[in-house]
Amino acid sequence: MNDDPFHDWDAAYVLGQLGPDDRRAYEQHLKTCASCSAAVAELAGMPGILATLTKDEALALLDPEPVEPASDGLVTRLAVAAGRRRRRVRLAIAGAGVAAALGLGVGGYVVGSADDPPSGHFVAMSEVQPGIMTANVRVEKKAWGTRIDWNCHYVATGGYSASRVYELVVTDTSGHETVAATWTASSPKAASLSASSSVPKAQIRRVDIRVAGSDEPLTETELNG
User: Fold this and answer.
1) Domain total of the chain
2) 40 is in which domain, residue-wise?
3) Mean pLDDT throughout 88-97?
């Protein structure tokens, strides 16, 4: 039996299902718990994968027993990833995937159709802490909310690590912050990252990237003052 009260929080954290107070408490815990940090790192790519699910692919994840897919597609990758974790994590991912594919909010996220291609231009994000990270971002208005695509380059030597978790944070015009995505960095660059938010673009004040557990952005883009 694991007596760690945060033991079961990894999937909820990655999928944005923790409230603000619980999220900050968990982020403080991650600073001192190697086991939970490793669990978060293993699941960090799930929001981006869920963002491309179709309704049928999401519903397939709810099958009580793994189904052998006909091809090495998205469901295969999700099933393999889920198989490495406990059943509770698989169910959390499946539930989030179904909600997202049906256009329902999950921890502030809404996912659009996988057939809806991105448009618009990338803009460079401002370096709040120079010399650590550079990034560009594309923020698009959608009928269901906002789509965010970004790329980043870890400038500082040693600035990328599989054990370091980064967050994409959306701040609305009321000042409320929502973590739209989490990921780890195992190479100097991360490209073609994507997330979605139920917050309309017109109500987003700022999008920034920060290290999980920190209130200080590394880079940011202002949208609506």
Assistant:
1) 2
2) 10-101
3) 51
